[in-house]
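Give me structure tokens for this 484-residue protein.
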Amino acid sequence: MVEAIAAVTRHVRLLGPWTTWACLGVLAVVVAALWWTRTRHLSPLRQAAVPAGALAVTAIAWLVVEVIWHPVAEGAGTAVWSWTGGVVLVACQILAGGRPRDDDGRPRDDDSRPRDDDSRPRDDDIAAARERACARHPRLARMAGSGTGLAAALAAALLAINAFFGAYPSLAAVLGIGVATTPLDSLPAAAPLPRAPERGAGPLLASWTAPSDLPTEGAAVTATVPAGDQSGTRGFKPRQAVIYLPPAYLTAQRPALPVLVLMAGQPGSPKDWFEIGRLKETMDAYAAAHEGLAPVVVVVDPLGSPYRNPLCSDTPRGGRAATYLQQDVPTWITTHLQVDPDRSHWAIAGLSNGGTCALQVVTRAPESYRTFLAMSPEEHPTLGGEQRTIDRGFGGDRAAYEANDPLSLMAAAPPGRYDGVAGLISIGRQDEEYASAVPALMNGARGAGIEVDARQYEGGHGWIVWSAALADQVDWLGERLGLV
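Here you go.
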């Protein structure tokens, strides 16, 4: 049943050049219709109060979410709040309009009809009786009309925001059924191996012979990668990981494949890379061009919740998120997956908050990962301002903040600390807010001896950039990790 629903909903496309304009059109029609039926008969002062009230409500919501609660460090953004204001305007029109009115401005009472002096039923007036029956519940009809208008405005806003971030490509992705996953434990076991497979010198592709029964595509599997298995990590509860296993991994004699540990941003979840970021399609395409070889990609959760930011650090606020990524995740991978144990063939990557986290991990513990991909990273780990981050994230301890800040770590690193570390920093050409971080991070990395390059992609701070970045950088990554 789920597969049938997924097959149908995959064809309901949510992204396209028409999406934003169509959503604007829907919102305009709803606002105009409500003005005509609800508010045009109000006095000029009351009519002006409707958009003013919507603006005030939106401003209060912005204050509560962005200033007081502040669940996302970089904020929701102008596009989100603009569309939120549109939906609030529709709600205010509905509340202010009251009962429908006649053309002369008088309230129309649909519950009453002219009555004959003779109260006896008129058997010959069947049509009138039907009209009276249909008019018994005018309030329900008005509520249905208002609900339809509000639902249309809300749907238009959600679709437009989704298009702005280039997020869910289809209805199936929204429902979380765009990419089929199975539990890792359900996969058939490979030939028994006493330890992780070994690989010879040189690129893996040169020594690998694909079997005749090589699968045509990889598999997406789920697994629980717990915190604290080996390190005693406490106070951090990651969500389920999603793992890409390339075709070569699914064969009876698995080669020693490299590892990419990948993270989404905030808010976000590991499955976003599959549902939105086209990870499986990207890796399947790479594997098809390299005889089934590709990195094993383990998409982990560095947050614990979409609206919780532990700053990728060991803190009282977030638990031991740093220890989880630097110790627990690698230990789990080498224990539960048959991969190349050589950490020079391991990489860590992420987008936005996850990109910042990738830089934090590699600058704190370069022995854990020697390669990184930082997509649209922040200049510093942040909860919305340096002092706010120090106070709320690190209990006012500036030294603890600097011990988890990539720029501070790179500036204080002794010579040779980052020998052999390399990475790519990428950004969207229209991402004005995050673009300023790139020169600072590039200069800091090069000053510390890290081999780093920057790449730009068309788009802003959204999945259009991040999915394009992964597809573009996988060739560099494959060479860097010893596949080719």
